[in-house]
Structure prediction request, 104 residues.
Amino acid sequence: MIWMLGLAVLTVGYALGRYRPLHRASDWAHWQTSGHPPTRRTRRWWTVFIILSAENLAWLAMHPVPAWQAWQHRNDPPPPRSPAPAFDPDWAAKRRAATNTEDA
Prediction:
């Protein structure tokens, strides 16, 4: 009798692992927020809110240090931009001169 219970538990665990209901729910919730997001205070909005909140809380529980660092730097200004590339009007002549010196 106990081996049947163990087999049933393994079968259910395997089926849930293959079906991945939490991953599917997360994908559905992320898909709902793109395009036309649900209007507030509807059943769909609350479902999306609960799923995404649970996902965020689980990430915070599993990764506390990166979460704290992200929270500390959330309002930092963006890094400075690199200077725009300058156009050299003589690039063709310099390239021709460089290839001629390599051939010689």
